[in-house]
Amino acid sequence: MPATVRLVNAVFYAHHGVMEEEHRIGGRYEVDVAVTLDVGAAAETDSLAHTVDYEKVYALVREVVTGNSSYLIERVAWRIAGAVRAAYPDVDSVDVTVRKPNPPVGGPCDRAEVTVRR
Description:
4 helices, elongated
């Protein structure tokens, strides 16, 4: 039974960006993670061992986002997806969206975001 387990809008304070001020001051980052997998065994057994533990996924996301800084949110999203795939190698796919609210683009802009799939 294919399904998607999602974390939606996990929020962290981190130091990513191309501009020096972004690395020094930091800012808010929002992350969505969608993991596609077969949940048939989990549904039948009611066992966390047969699905993705979203508490563990959240911890992986937090570690990547608040750990080493990156210039690009593309790299942050790619690293998150890789960490989730490493923890759950049998999942079908991992989609990660990283959003940077109010990006420094020289004018009004709600957010910049990137989505990667691994």
